[in-house]
Amino acid sequence: MFFSRHKTKMITPTEALPGQEQRTFAVPERHAVLDTPLNPPFPEDLNTAVFGLGCFWGAERKFWQIDGVYTTAVGYAGGFTPNPTYGEVCSGRTGHTEAVLVVFDPEKVSYRDLLAVFWEAHDPTQGMRQGNDVGTQYRSAIYFADDEQRRAAEETRDAYEEALRGAGYGSISTEIAPAGPFYYAEGYHQQYLHKVPNGYCGLDGTGVSCPVRLGVIVDSVELSLTDEALDLERHCG
Ligand code: MHO
Fold this sequence. Notes:
Blueprint: E1 47-53, H1 56-64, E2 69-77, H2 86-90, E3 97-104, H3 111-121, E4 129-130, E5 133-134, E6 140-144, H4 147-166, E7 175-178, E8 182-184, H5 192-195, H6 227-235
Parallel strand pairs: 6-7
Antiparallel strand pairs: 1-3, 1-6, 2-3, 2-8, 4-5
Helix pairs in contact: 3-4
The chain binds S-oxymethionine.
S-oxymethionine is lined by residues 55-57, 98, 133, 200.
InterPro entries: Met_Sox_Rdtase_MsrA_dom, Met_Sox_Rdtase_MsrA_sf, MsrA_MetSO_reductase
GO molecular function, one term: peptide-methionine (S)-S-oxide reductase activity
Active site: 55
């Protein structure tokens, strides 16, 4: 049947749902944890990063816990359908992956530090799934803002792939592509695990350390996590 097509196969632009001309739902103005603005414009001295690492509920929490992160938001990226709804994304017919927008202060935390968190938080060798969550909407992705981010993404991927191989894992399937539009997800998905503390979190890393942390690629900056973050790390991902 038309709608039961396999969700692990990336659709083509012509197959994609038409979506909407504008967002059809409201997004809160402020971050529920950090109390910073959730929507642009952001202060000029900050940088942005976009990562996909499976279900965005747990993924977003990983990043809002890092010192130097100004705000985070969840949304849909990397696909074709404009202003999609969660239901449309779950149909597998938008081409989008669940993504996290991270706005950070590069004086306090570097993009490579964020990449280390990204690589270690999930299993980037799973193709069109992440754990029990299956489909193109859960693929691992890095959408870079500029050439410097692209280089950092590719270099850390190569280094992490080598580390993973040593631990018996296969190739990294992470999509690394230029950042296109980031469509904010519905308000209830924003900071979901703060609003629903025992909510579903499918995020789980491989346990293999990213060489960035070990100072192989850059001098390692010790990431400072809050106490809440350290506690959560023991429970999820
Ligand atoms: N397996 C989870 C994924 C949620 S995530 C926002 C669920 O279906 O609730 O994709």
